[in-house]
Amino acid sequence: MVNENLANLLLEIAESVENVENKDAHDLKWAACGESWGDKSWEDPGFAPKWNDSCDLVRNNFRRFGLSREDIVIIALLTSNLIKGLGGMSATDLMENVGKRPDDSIRIIDRIGRLVDLKLLEPEEGFMGSRRMGDPVLLKEGGRAKLIKCDFSLSERLTKFILGDAQDIEDDNIEPYADNEDFLGDWFEYVFARKEYNLSSDSSNYGSSGRNDELCKLDRMREKIEERTRLTPARFPFHEIVEEHKLDFCEQVALIYLLHEGLGGSPCDIDELTGVIAHGRISKFKYRRYFRKDGKLYGKGLIGFSDRAVFRRSTDSMEIAPEVLSRLTESEMKTDEERIESIIGKDELLTVIKPESKFESLVLKGELIEVIRGGITQYLGNRTATLSEWGVLKPVNDGSSGKFQNSLLMLFHGAPGTGKTHAARFVAQQLGRDIVTTDISRILSCWVGESQQNLQGLFKKMERINTEIAEPPVLLLNEADQFFTRRGIAKSGVDRMYNQLQNLFLEALENYHGILIATTNLMENFDEAFSRRFNIKIKFPFPEYPERVKLWKLHLPQTLPLAKDVDIEKLAKYYRLTGGQIALIIRNTAAMAAGRDGRKRYIFQADLVKYCELELNTSFDNSTSKRIGFRPYVSKGRSNA
Predict the structure, then answer these.
(1) Does 216 score more than 90 pLDDT?
(2) Is the Cβ–Cβ distance between 276 and 195 less than 8 Å?
(3) What is d(CA 94, CA 81) in angstroms, rounded to the nearest whole number?
(4) Which of 339, 486, 588, 616 has the fewest Cβ atoms within 10 angstroms?
(5) Residue 319 in contact with residue 267, Cβ under 8 Å?
(6) Would you say residue 266 has pLDDT above 80?
(7) How far apart are CA 435 and CA 516, in angstroms?
(8) In what order do the strands lie in the sheet with 121-124?
(9) Do 3 and 56 contact (CB within 8 A), yes or no?
């Protein structure tokens, strides 16, 4: 319970200090109080016991603050000045009146700083000009050098308490946080007020006193967050992330701002972020270090570069990592599928596929299957670390953790329909991964610059996926022919743009860390620079007779009604077809048979021959598909017996 005579007790203490008229008496008085104000008892045989009792009574009124006797004397001196109408006191005056010896000054200035942190004192304008510290960040950055230049007075809430206008030292509107949303709401309000202040400072919309008022407002908002957090027994996810990664205050402000923008689906330019945390234009350049790849926020995976801001001023746009956003808002995002969907968003260039290719469905020569399996084994075994120790691989120089990234880049080339895409799905299935696929034709645009943006956006998204997902999907670049052709001499703006696009593609492949498979039909004009980027290159040959038999059996479902005259060995021997062509022939034949009635709803050998002939006669590429030997036997009757 508050002592009604608190003001009188403080005035008595102040009067005892102020009545010391010479240095010897000053030293004698403090010597009688013991060497320490804080921990030791205050034995005072040379002074009236009332001094000791007064300090104990005052301390009882501020029990939760853990004040030392030096703190009490500082408050007493400022209370005396308040009652006399003299205003505040400078830090140097307080040090002179409270300290026992000159070497006590550093300790006294630290006591003053602690009382400011406790919101019992506040800086004010003194005779040396504007001295409001405002934001605690400025105070801590300035340290003792800033404190010693300030004048101090009692805070408003302490003044009301001492004078009896308030029954408690706590602010009336300070309450514990109800939940995480309540906590984040205060933080959002603070960071946007901070942003507005920094913008107004840059444009000089306020005078000196106006800026001081805004700084004090920011100070109070941050103090409110700290006080409500202290009163709240629960710990929020933000506190856990801050402690886990040891984030400083500027990193905390940036993360909260990115969280707010991420909830609205908007990325942020780095200039915008530095404008939130930096005071003044010069410091903006210094604070850009927080958003480099070697910075803590990016390096710990809390934020990442965004590719959704192609029409903004800067290409250096950041956004909060999806799982961090989920954690801070206490919403669940547990599966890799949800994370991938969040990163890709509504991007029309990318499609997620779940492969269902089984080993039996991969019809290739045994040696080619072994090469593919060897690449899978190499990736799963993560032999990158061993190869780096042997000096075969060089470290990744991208500002990341410095580890050697595990990657597998494969190029499948060959005629259309020879199983390149199917083999890519087989690789993904063996790895237990999904496929993210795109056609290169969808990346290219008739608009200048848009193709580059599409390509950069694609690989930025995949960089995030490979970094943030435990088992990232396979990136499949289908029909990449247009990118792999040789670069020529640029004779026009279009040529220069196309060469630049190829250079970007080469760089993206060089820096890619994950699983990438590219397919192409044309190798005649293949640029050798692309060839060196791939770990494994496999040519998919036209299937020979044994493979064609397997393909016919593979694509003919057991539920398909086949007549007894169907002979797939003869079809495989006579028609040199790819797996894609065989699948198309069977589909067309089945569609024709489905339109028949009754006993005729069978697939006959003549039907298959008919569509084989049709495929050979109408195929765009007749150089590889052809007839071999004698025409397969076709029965004259259409009996299924």
Answers:
(1) no
(2) yes
(3) 12
(4) 486
(5) yes
(6) no
(7) 10
(8) 89-90, 151-154, 121-124
(9) no
Tokens standing for residue 337: 């599928």
The type of residue at 105 is S
Close Cβ partners of 383 (under 8 Å, ≥ 6 residues apart): none
pLDDT at 169: 67
Is residue 297 within a helix (H) or strand (E), and if so which, with residue range? helix 296-299
Coil, helix or strand at residue 445: coil
Nearest alpha-carbon partner for 477 in 449, 445, 518 = 518
Which value, to the nearest 10 degrees, does the dihedral of the CA atoms of residues 61, 62, 66, 68 take? -80
Whether residue 9 has pLDDT greater than 70: yes
Q: 480 near 434, Cβ under 8 Å?
A: no
Asked whether the beta carbons of 530 and 484 are under 8 A apart, the reply is yes
Greatest mean pLDDT among 77-91, 113-127, 346-360: 77-91
Per-residue pLDDT tens digits for 300-316:
888 987 765 443 444 57
Report the C-alpha gap between 591 and 383 in whole angstroms: 49
- pLDDT, residue 128, reads 36
- Classify the C-alpha dihedral 281-286-292-295 as positive or negative: negative
Kindly give, in sequence order, each residue whose CB lies less than 8 Å from that of residue 342, ignoring residues fewer than 6 positions away: 322, 333
Instruction: Return the structure tokens found at 187.
Output: 């933080």
Radius of gyration of the chain (CA): 39
Out of 377-391, 421-435, 613-627, give the one with best mean pLDDT: 421-435
